[in-house]
């Protein structure tokens, strides 16, 4: 078995184990179809029906585990003349995007986007009920139903400063028909990111597999290229997590 196949297999079991711990019915068959909207509509519908009150569902970990990576990056990208645009891609019902909105001292426009209208509706209702306030009064927060393979239909080219991907690419790569879609999503991210911006992928994928995939998919001679780096986030329940940072670079014309 190749390192790539082994890594995907282990990660799939970790996702299934996490859902079993939370008493959700995400079976192996559903895991293989995590690239499909119907899967997530079913997941969030069943999830919300099991508890009388709303509870955020966090893949991998919550905001506290990664704020020391995200918040300093926001500081370095600050622009005095405009809001920083932050996209939480495949947000589900995570508190990650709202936490950035709540904690950023700099003005940010945070878009939490997901393919599932069920997840988007649940988050909109939750935020309205909680009346969450931003750290900076100029900050904005929105929730959007959006297929991440078509980011450029909503965002202009080179218009987003930071894209946060906590498990979205992992879900695609581990789906039966999702690997090609994961590559398209990465290319969409590079299209809508500013030249100074970054994509942060949080994953439990081993660097020997993920770095190779990112470096291959992020290069399109004459069209796009990107630098790829990695840092360790830490260990949780015996699993090591990483942050892969992808930064678009100017294309050199020959």
TrEMBL record:
SUPFAM superfamilies: S-adenosyl-L-methionine-dependent methyltransferases (SSF53335). Residues 83-194 form the Methyltransferase domain. CDD domains: AdoMet_MTases. InterPro entries: Lys/N-term_MeTrsfase_sf, Methyltranfer_dom, SAM-dependent_MTases_sf. GO terms for molecular function: methyltransferase activity. The keyword Transferase applies. It catalyses: N(6)-methyl-L-lysyl-[citrate synthase] + S-adenosyl-L-methionine = N(6),N(6)-dimethyl-L-lysyl-[citrate synthase] + S-adenosyl-L-homocysteine + H(+); N(6),N(6)-dimethyl-L-lysyl-[citrate synthase] + S-adenosyl-L-methionine = N(6),N(6),N(6)-trimethyl-L-lysyl-[citrate synthase] + S-adenosyl-L-homocysteine + H(+); L-lysyl-[citrate synthase] + S-adenosyl-L-methionine = N(6)-methyl-L-lysyl-[citrate synthase] + S-adenosyl-L-homocysteine + H(+). Keywords: Methyltransferase, Mitochondrion, S-adenosyl-L-methionine, Transferase, Transit peptide. It holds the Pfam family Methyltransf_31. It is found in: Mitochondrion. GO terms for biological process: methylation. GO terms for cellular component: mitochondrion. Protein-lysine methyltransferase that selectively trimethylates citrate synthase (CS) in mitochondria. Seems to conduct trimethylation in a highly distributive manner rather than in a processive manner, and thus introduces a single methyl group per binding event. Belongs to the methyltransferase superfamily. This is Citrate synthase-lysine N-methyltransferase CSKMT, mitochondrial. It comes from Acanthochromis polyacanthus (spiny chromis).
